[in-house]
Amino acid sequence: xxxxxxxxxVTGASSGIGQATALRLAQDGFHVLVHFHxxxxxxxxxxxxxxxxxxxxxxxxxxxxESAAAExxxxxxxxxxxxxxxxxxxxxxxxxxxxxxxGMMSDKVFESVIESNIxxxxxxxxxxxxxMIRQRSGSIVNVSSLAGQTGNPGQINYAASKAALxxxxxxxxxxxxxRGIRVNAVAPGFIDTxxxxxxxKEQVVERIPLRRFGTSEEVANVISFLCSSQSSxxxxxxxxxxxxxxxx
Length: 248
Ligand code: NAI
Fold this sequence. Notes:
This protein is an alpha/beta fold and 248 residues long. It contains 8 helices and 7 strands; from the N terminus they run βαβαβαβαβααβααβ. A 7-stranded parallel beta sheet has the order 3-2-1-4-5-6-7, sandwiched between helices. β1 (7-10), α1 (16-27) and β2 (31-36) form a beta-alpha-beta unit. The longest helix has 29 residues, at 107-135. The radius of gyration is 17 Å and the shape is globular. It binds 1,4-dihydronicotinamide adenine dinucleotide.
């Protein structure tokens, strides 16, 4: 299959920030690989909205925690497309939280977040840079979090995973910069998605200078910028998208 457009893979694109990012990158002209794991209906909805907006996409399913399955799914997809097709963008958006105070947290809960939020992005960055190095171009954006910059009580596992993502962003940027590949992160604050439904909004917004939660589209706009040539001299950077909650 000849793919004239550059390909962008967005993980966790069945909902929230991932869905908004997939839609935005399709508008930007990418052929979007809409990744999902369990939420098949959400993935299909993203693809449908991309087509409705005149864009193009393909669905891809795997658990980001399983490196062999992820690599197999990606290898299978890229076998069907022209070997010359350019894989320009990886957005590591998929992630979970499973909160609790450190003293009460089980090994299983701690490790589940580490596996999803560190191992998953690592497996995908490893797979992606191998391909991007051959074509000598590409842009990777990791979705970190304000919690990874500041810490957050009740989220020792999540904060650690998102801080690690920033460290991995800096490290990989140094490794692959000479090959023309950029690696950046975004650190959203409070964004109105399924992930924050349990947060007492009225109390939290008082602390946010812009006095509201952000939208998934506002994060997607920043990711779009980091994937585009508009940010061609930015790498290893973490861009905060938090309404001024933690000026950086
Ligand atoms: P969400 O729950 O809608 O999105 C998370 C996505 O990750 C879902 O599509 C889910 O299916 C996918 N996912 C989780 N584990 C997976 C696995 N093992 N394999 C494959 N896919 C998996 O929530 P939201 O808010 O859109 O989150 C997206 C990213 O943004 C996450 O990494 C989250 O940590 C980060 N973030 C969100 C903030 C917020 O306020 N909503 C703030 C800071 C960061």
